[in-house]
């Protein structure tokens, strides 16, 4: 969501409020928008189905033309049934491949330096679709993170040393003298 932060900076929003605003947007976004990966998946399936419908229409026209000979018609029907079965199997295979690719890219989004490269390292033959869940994806991701850690973005490590307010970088907003004394162990002697 770096692009959104840049737009908000240009709009004059304070740097300190950007993370909170982007976080709120991330929480509300799934209620109003479809993720790009899911949209692409559905769009690809729609294109494939439209192509299949057009192909079936052509086949029906051919059947109408060949209706002359009954033996010829049976042979053509059998051939078309075989072609349709093969087309269905190819469609199901392509759809499974698309779903696996989408799931892999969603799992590594923002975590790696090159998504295409890392997505190609997954062994899709060991992944199983179980509804919308991909079984085996987390295991392969963990193995890749361990064996090829240089491909993954590292979380920034906290800097050692004293940080006012617990390291958030922002000064405490409502602290009084007694609380400050208690933090440093300077309690009044009685």
Radius of gyration, taken over Cα atoms and rounded to an integer in Å = 29 Å
Secondary structure category: mainly alpha
Largest sheet: 2 strands, antiparallel
Share of residues in strands: under 5%
Low-confidence stretches: none
Q: What average pLDDT do the residues reach?
A: 80
Helix content: 55-70%
N-C termini distance? 55 Å
Total count of strands: 2
- Spatial strand arrangement across the major sheet: 1-2
Order of helices and strands: HHHHHEEHH
Q: Tally the helices: what do you get?
A: 7
Shape: elongated
Textual characterization of the structure:
The protein has a two-stranded antiparallel ribbon with strand order 1-2. The protein contains seven helices and two strands. Strand 1 and strand 2 form a beta hairpin. The chain is mostly helical and 190 residues long.
In brief:
With 190 residues, the protein is mainly α.
Topology:
Layout: H1 2-10, H2 15-32, H3 36-65, H4 70-108, H5 115-119, E1 128-130, E2 133-135, H6 137-147, H7 177-183
Antiparallel strand pairs: 1-2
Keywords, please?
190 residues; mainly alpha; two-stranded antiparallel sheet; 7 helices; 3% strand
